[in-house]
UniProtKB/TrEMBL annotation:
The keyword Oxidoreductase applies. One of its GO terms (molecular function) is oxidoreductase activity. The keyword Oxidoreductase applies. This is Gfo/Idh/MocA family oxidoreductase. Pfam families: GFO_IDH_MocA, GFO_IDH_MocA_C.
Length: 358
């Protein structure tokens, strides 16, 4: 068991659905500097089951009641996308820090409203872009910052697999479901272009920004064929680096995610695994100066727990936030909207000019 530190963030998880069960509840229990203080879910059966399993101090069926609890320090918003902004704003206004699942919202305006709310509150909001806490990707980020020099180009790909549920069913616990779970009206999978972009594209765009900084414009093409969606996105970074992003859902092969990064003083090749293996990426960092390759192990691949520990370090000890902040979350939305508009119009789209929904 991971040893607990003396000062710990008291966390309430909003939503006891699949993402909470697969990632956040265990992360709170295992985190060195946080505790699972409360669970809140409108579904009483789910709340009771998760309460019995994870034994938080408090159980709440009502979100406002949880937010009114003065002992609570922070909320993990683990609900469907449509609720991210309203539930995060409520938590911030109640004086709580927030870890909000990705994407923070579904439109530029929603992201902007959340950014305003974060500023007004003076509280921290970290976006659940947990890949930033993959220890091998952290090593790449350090290499880019300290040694690689100018970035020439990034080619990154995120290709979901037709066999992903066979893989994940084999490794994940059986999810507990409830007919009483609160869901937004309508079917989120009604528009698959939008659904895949929000669910998967948000990760790809954030990884690109994490490694290469702000994206200023995109030119995207989409091919839909035999139920597969393939986006090729020519990406312009503010640094001048060239980018090519490939989002494909789903490839007729194993999960395929990674990147090639070419720099002035070295290069990186990376292979990222299906996140539910909790396994750090395999990266080869090539140092031009010594003509050697370095492969960090990244033994602790629990990026969901590590992202919570990052937020708690910032909230409790004033350390700089290592995760994606609300501006990063907003930039991800802008990039996804720009990709959608570029596909529709067949032209280059600048991120600063976009508005509306993905
Ligand atoms: N980081 C990742 O890699 C990753 C992977 C999968 C899913 N996700 C994200 O997780 C989210 C979906 O999670 P899910 O599938 O567990 O969602 P879900 O909708 O199945 O479950 C959410 C739960 O929250 C409860 N809830 C919602 N609003 C509430 C309220 N106001 N008060 C009380 N309870 C409330 C519901 O009753 C439900 O049980 C999405 O945003 C998705 O993008 C992230």
């Amino acid at each position: 068991m991971i040893a607990k530190e003396e000062r710990r963030l008291r966390v309430g998880v909003l939503g006891a659905g699949p993402i909470a069960q697969f990632a956040h509840l265990e992360s709170c229990v295992k985190a060195r500097n946080a505790d699972l203080y409360a669970i809140c879910d409108a579904a009483p059966d789910l709340l009771a089951r998760m309460g019995a399993t994870y034994e938080p101090r408090k159980l709440y069926a009502d979100y406002d009641a949880m937010l009114a609890d003065p002992e609570l320090d922070a909320v993990i918003v683990a609900t469907s996308d449509a609720y991210h902004v309203p539930m995060s704003v409520k938590a911030l206004e109640a004086g709580k820090h927030v870890l909000c699942e990705k994407p923070i919202g579904t439109s530029v305006e929603e992201g902007e409203a959340l950014a305003e709310a974060v500023k007004r509150s003076g509280k921290l909001l970290q976006v659940g872009h947990m890949k930033r806490f993959d220890p091998a990707l952290e090593a790449v980020r350090d290499f880019v910052r300290d040694e690689m020099g100018e970035v020439l180009a990034l080619k990154a790909w995120y290709c979901d697999s037709t066999h992903r549920y066979t893989n994940t069913d084999a490794v994940q616990p059986l999810p507990v479901t409830s007919k009483q779970a609160r869901k937004p009206a309508g079917n989120p999978k009604a528009d698959l272009r939008q659904y895949f972009m929000l669910a998967h594209g948000s990760h790809l765009v954030d990884t690109a920004r994490f490694l290469c900084g702000p994206i200023v414009a995109v030119r995207a093409r989409l091919r839909e064929k035999f139920g597969a969606y393939c986006w090729f996105v020519e990406t312009e970074f503010a640094s001048g680096a060239l980018g090519h992003l490939d989002l494909t859902v789903a490839v007729r092969m194993d999960w395929f995610e990674g990147f090639q990064l070419y720099g002035e003083h070295g290069s990186v090749l990376a292979k990222t695994f299906n996140p539910w293996y909790f396994r750090a990426s395999e990266v080869e960092i090539f140092h031009e100066r010594t003509a050697t390759t370095h492969k960090p192990l990244g033994a602790d691949g629990h990026f969901f727990r590590r992202q919570l520990e990052g937020l708690a370090d910032a909230a409790l000890h004033g350390q700089p936030m290592r995760g994606a902040d609300v501006e990063d979350g907003l930039a991800s939305i802008r990039a996804m909207v720009a990709i959608a508009r570029s596909v529709e119009r067949g032209e280059r789209v600048e991120l600063a000019a976009v508005s509306g929904a993905v």
